[in-house]
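Supplementary Methods S3. Complex input for the 1-O-phosphono-alpha-D-glucopyranose-bound model.
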Amino acid sequence: MKALIPAAGLGTRFLPATKAQPKEMLLVVDRPAIQYVVEEGLASAADEVVIINSHEKKAIEEHFSPNPELVALLRERGKGAYADMVEYVGNLNVSYVYQEEALGLGHAVRCAAEKTGDEPFYVLLGDVLVPNNKMLPAMQAVSDAHGGASVIAVMPVPDEEVGRFGVIAGEAVADDVWKVESLVEKPALADAPSNLAVFGRYLLSPRVMELLADVEPGVGGEIQLTDALDAVLKEEEMYALIIDPADGFDTGTVESWLETNNILWKQKQGR
Ligand code: G1P
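Predicted complex, serialized as structure tokens:
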């Protein structure tokens, strides 16, 4: 089973910091943001993380490649702990596929079709970090309890934010689980079927990957993953796990990135 991390975006909101450096490589406390997401993927049932990259963002691949020269130099200089870190990060099980054109999240995910084959797969959006790694196993448990159905993480958001997200319609089947009836990407508030927003962690059936091949451009002219999820509901069940907002950290804007750094830094200091 694979965990997919789309990473081919331009990082526009972070310019000029992201002119020569991928947004995914920006530091969050002590690691590039994408390292948290890769570690989360590998802590789940996935055996490999597939980064959907662009050819312009080689720094991501360099980060996850072995660097025996640097390791040897650090050891020679008595910096064993740093050598261990470099060795560890270079040995994480990461591979790459490429999205040649930025045509939307659904298009990015579809670029990994050959990797996922006929297995379920995770999608982890890099804008949100889940440092305790607990969300994917919780989603897997919901899927197992419902015959292997797709499961998406959702979070209640205030009215003024629903238009930024995918939003679900459905009904509660447990305190923190909904059965999904439909999804809509970035609805106007008046059209939003609930205030439960798709958060950026997905456990999806292989049928979603097949359907993505036929999804037409939607909101913003982009091929939307949300539209493939809505389409699969005609054939399969899907559930939504309502997450505890305290488990996830947004890094999608400069402000939220700074705030996340602040909170995680304090957590690291034990404050
Ligand atoms: C994407 C998805 C959206 C989801 C959001 C979560 O939107 O299309 O459904 O709610 O991520 O962050 P984006 O933020 O890429 O516009």
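The radius of gyration is 19 Å. The chain has one domain: 2-265.
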